[in-house]
Amino acid sequence: VLCMDADLQHEPEAVPAVAAPVLAGVADFAVGSRNVGGGGVGFEWSLLRRIISHGATLLAVPLSGSSDPMSGFFCLSKETLARGKGAGINARGFKIGLELMVRCRCRRVVDVPITFRDRVAGESKLSMKQNVEYVLQLIDLYIFRFGIAVLLSTVIAVAVAVLMLLHFMWRRF
């Protein structure tokens, strides 16, 4: 099963390379990645877009095992997809690849270098609503993958770190 966003930001010529690891049986899930050697972005991104992309990626990497878990260009086998049956796969938001990697319990994830091009058709779905839905999707996937205890521990650790930082800043100024 191969998925490629329809906005032509992914090169159709890369389909065989992205499908190859799954067809060869060496991967449960192959991701067309701009974040590995040989991959990249074929146009200039604004600073804001780079920050949003890198931030969203950093939040999802622990769930996925991919350097580009936000990619809309991926391949998985029918058997891998079947493992997700009954796992509550939900395309809320717009990152179905991340959802499938987690809920289908993909352990053998392979990144395949691709060049991400400027959009030829359509327009970005990125909005504040999509950002909120993405955060909700991440929370749901972290609970699914690691359990509520890990999520709560992480939230507490971040809260303590923020409080310590605020305390340090308060005392300095």
Automatic annotation (TrEMBL):
Coiled-coil parts of chain: none
Transmembrane segments: 142-166
GO biological process: dolichol-linked oligosaccharide biosynthetic process; GPI anchor biosynthetic process; protein O-linked glycosylation via mannose
GO molecular function: dolichyl-phosphate beta-D-mannosyltransferase activity
One annotated Gene Ontology cellular component of this protein: endoplasmic reticulum membrane
Domain of life: Eukaryota
Keyword Transferase found: yes
Keyword annotations from UniProtKB, A to Z: Glycosyltransferase, Membrane, Transferase, Transmembrane, Transmembrane helix
Listed name of the protein: Dolichyl-phosphate beta-D-mannosyltransferase
